[in-house]
Design a protein that fits this description.
Length: 311
């Protein structure tokens, strides 16, 4: 028997799969649908201080290695987000699935303000998005770029709310372990890794970038090796649960992420092709893999690649 159930920060989950932020976490009905299709937890789309329309079209393109996007953190603002989250949590609680609420802000101080507002909805966790790669023109260098700035945001949010918090880190830094330790020292309960990877596509016939924003964030299969390396590095740097996200579309992908040290596994771009039904498929594939290899539960696999590497 292969058991997919687990506990994360005292929260009971039916399975380790999490709807990643920014994909379908926009309305109570859509979040409920993902949960009913097999997601173990749901992350809402990031909410900020004020409403944002995001970037002008074209903002997203399905590419041969995944998806590249520059949506630009479109959201209704944190105050308008609260009733959406309240209704979402009500629906999700009825089916035993926790709600994670993602937030962002232009300054460290405003992260605290947004967190306090979002906490009114009592999500099970607040995910602190300090690593969106496609809004540098709006907000400047992401807070995930240095240990100091990442720690500052974490410290302010930790002082602002009593809910569990997870800090979402970026892979395109040279000192990921140091940054992970910095946010852990300031009170992070978990780490989400990774966000999308900065990239761009060019239309050779038009001799111009395809995205209106010029650059965007790459996700999907192309970034799975980057995500695995990031989770593997973070897991050795800190003793915190990790939500491993990036390039997950099969049960084998999920197993690899758990072996790299992840506790939960985020699923995002895979929904572009398969919709919410992808959760049930990945769960079944993960369970089949565990049965075939003799793993009775997720703990038996977690961090195995790290341990084997040190043998």
């Amino acid at each position: 028997m292969a058991d997919l159930a687990l506990e994360f920060l005292g929260i009971k989950l039916k399975n380790p799969l999490v709807l990643a932020s920014g994909i379908l976490g926009t309305s109570p009905a859509v979040m409920e649908r993902c949960a009913l299709q097999g997601a173990g937890a749901i992350t809402s789309k990031s909410a900020g201080t004020v409403p944002r329309d995001g970037h002008a079209n074209p903002v997203s393109l399905a590419w041969q290695g995944g998806v590249i996007n520059a949506i630009g953190l479109t959201n209704p603002g944190c105050h308008a987000e609260v009733p959406i989250l309240i209704e979402s949590k009500k629906r999700l609680n009825a089916i035993g699935v926790p709600l994670f609420a993602s937030i962002f802000a232009p300054t460290a101080e405003e992260f605290g303000e947004v967190a306090r507002v979002i906490a009114e909805a009592e999500p099970d966790l607040i995910e602190i998005n300090i690593s969106c790669p496609n809004v540098a023109s709006d907000f400047g260098t992401p807070f995930s770029a240095t240990a100091q700035s990442a720690a500052e945001v974490t410290r302010i949010v930790r002082a602002s709310v009593n809910l569990p918090i997870s800090v979402k880190l970026a892979p395109n830094v040279y000192n990921l372990g140091e940054i992970a330790r910095a946010v852990a020292d300031e009170g992070a309960d978990a780490i989400t890794a990774i966000n999308t990877v900065p990239g761009m596509l060019i239309d050779a016939y038009a001799a111009a970038p395809i995205l209106k924003n010029t650059t965007g964030g790459l996700s999907g299969a192309a970034i799975k090796p980057v995500a695995l390396r990031a989770v593997w590095e973070i897991a050795q740097a800190v003793d915190l649960p990790i939500i491993g996200t990036g390039g997950i579309s099969t049960g084998l992908d999920a197993a690899e992420m758990i072996m790299a040290g992840a506790t939960l596994v985020g699923v995002g771009s895979a929904l572009v092709d398969d919709g919410p039904a992808v959760f049930a498929r990945i769960n079944e594939e993960l369970k089949a893999f565990m049965l075939s290899q003799g793993y009775e539960n997720l703990a038996a696999m977690r961090g195995l690649a790290i341990r084997r590497n040190h043998e």
